[in-house]
Design goal:
It is a single chain. Helix 4 packs antiparallel against helix 8 and helix 8 packs across helix 9. The longest helix has 27 residues. A two-stranded antiparallel sheet has the order 1-2. It is mainly α. It has a domain of about 130 residues: Orthogonal Bundle (Farnesyl Diphosphate Synthase). The protein contains 16 helices and two strands. The protein starts with a helix and ends with a helix.
C-alpha cells in the first residue's frame, strides 16, 4: 500500500472513530466516561479496514462506508463488553475491561447502551436493507454466544460445532458488512452471496489465527497467552488434539485445563500435529478469501488486498 493510500485509510479510520463518538454521546457523565475509555482502546479496526479497502475498490461512496463502518464497530464493541462480563475477563488489549473497572451492573448497562445507540444509527441509514442485514448479524452474534456457553458447560466440542460457533460469533459480522457493500451498489444476488462468502472465509481465518495466538507470548500478539484456555474456550488446535486421542487421554487433557496447567497442554499440542492442522485450515480460508476477492478486484489491484489479507490473518 502506497503512502497516499495509507494516509487515506488513516483519515478514514479517524472519521469512523469520530462518527462512533458522535453516535454514543450521552447526557450521563458515567456513560460518557466509559465511552471515552472504550473508544481510546478500540483495537485495530479490522472491520473498518475491510469495509474501506473493499468498498473503495468497488466504488462505494466514502460517506456510506463511514456509516457502515461505525455501525459495524459499535456492534462489535457492544459484544466485547458483554463477552468480558460473561467470561469474567479482567484485561482486554492490556487494559482493564469495563466490567473490571466499573463493575458488573454498569458494564451490563453500558453494553445495552451501545446496542441501543447502534440500532438508532442503523435506523437512520438510507438503506433499510443494510440496516436489516446488520440487525440479523447482531442476532446471530447473540445466538453464537448462547451456543458457546452451552459448549463450555458440556465440556465437549467437535470441529463441526466449532465452525458453527465461530461463524456466528466472529465470521457473521465480516460476512454481513461485505454483503452490505453489495447491497449499497445494488449488485446481483449472486455477487452479494459471493461477498458474504468472502466475509465468512475471512472470519474463519481470523478466528483460527486468533486461536493459534492463544499459545504465543503476548508481546508478539497483543493477546494474553492462554487467554482462551483460561476462559474455558476450546480453540481449534485443542479440538484437533482431543479428536486424536482416546477417552481416557481426553479426560487427562481436560484435567490439565481445569487445573490451569496450560504449558503442559501446549507441550502436548507441540508434540502432535494439531498446530499444523489448524494452520492448514487457516491457510485454506485465506486462499478462499483471495479466490473470492479475484471476482471483484482488478488484477492490478489484487496484490494490495493479498498483502492485507496475509498481514491480518497470519500469526
Amino acid at each position: 500500500m502506497s503512502n497516499i493510500e495509507e494516509q487515506n485509510l488513516t483519515e478514514f479510520l479517524l472519521e469512523v472513530k469520530a462518527k462512533m463518538a458522535n453516535i454514543t454521546i450521552s447526557s450521563n457523565a458515567t456513560v460518557d466516561e466509559i465511552t471515552t475509555y472504550v473508544l481510546s482502546n478500540t483495537g485495530k479496526f479490522i472491520r473498518s479496514k475491510i469495509i474501506y479497502l473493499y468498498g473503495n475498490e468497488i466504488g462505494v461512496e466514502k460517506s456510506k462506508l463511514i456509516e457502515l463502518a461505525s455501525a459495524a464497530e459499535l456492534i462489535h464493541l457492544s459484544t466485547l463488553v458483554h463477552d468480558d462480563i460473561i467470561d469474567e475477563a479482567d484485561i482486554r488489549r492490556n487494559k482493564p475491561t469495563v466490567v473490571k473497572k466499573w463493575g458488573i451492573k454498569k458494564a451490563i448497562l453500558y453494553g445495552d447502551f451501545l446496542y441501543t445507540k447502534t440500532f438508532q444509527a442503523l435506523n437512520s441509514l438510507d438503506n433499510i436493507a443494510i440496516a436489516n442485514e446488520l440487525i440479523q448479524c447482531a442476532e446471530m452474534l447473540i445466538e453464537g454466544e448462547f451456543n458457546q456457553i452451552k459448549i463450555k458447560s458440556d465440556k465437549t466440542i467437535s470441529v463441526v460445532q466449532y465452525y458453527d460457533v465461530i461463524e456466528k460469533k466472529t465470521a457473521v459480522l465480516f460476512s454481513g458488512i461485505l454483503k452490505c457493500l453489495g447491497i449499497e451498489l445494488c449488485l446481483s444476488n449472486e455477487d452479494q452471496d459471493q461477498l458474504k462468502k468472502l466475509g465468512l472465509a475471512y472470519g474463519r481465518a481470523f478466528q483460527i489465527n486468533d486461536d493459534l495466538n492463544d499459545f504465543k507470548e503476548s508481546e508478539h500478539t497483543g493477546k494474553a497467552e492462554f487467554k482462551d484456555l483460561s476462559e474455558g474456550k476450546f480453540t481449534l488446535p485443542v479440538i484437533f488434539l482431543l479428536e486424536t486421542v482416546d477417552v481416557e487421554q481426553q479426560k487427562g487433557i481436560l484435567q490439565l485445563i481445569t487445573t490451569q496447567d496450560y504449558n503442559a497442554v501446549k507441550e502436548l499440542l507441540e508434540n502432535s500435529n494439531s498446530f499444523a492442522l489448524a494452520r492448514a485450515e487457516r491457510d485454506k480460508a485465506i486462499s478462499d478469501c483471495i479466490e473470492y476477492t479475484e471476482r471483484f478486484i482488478k488484477l492490478d489491484r489484487l496484490d494490495k488486498l493479498r498483502v492485507f489479507l496475509e498481514k491480518t490473518l497470519i500469526a
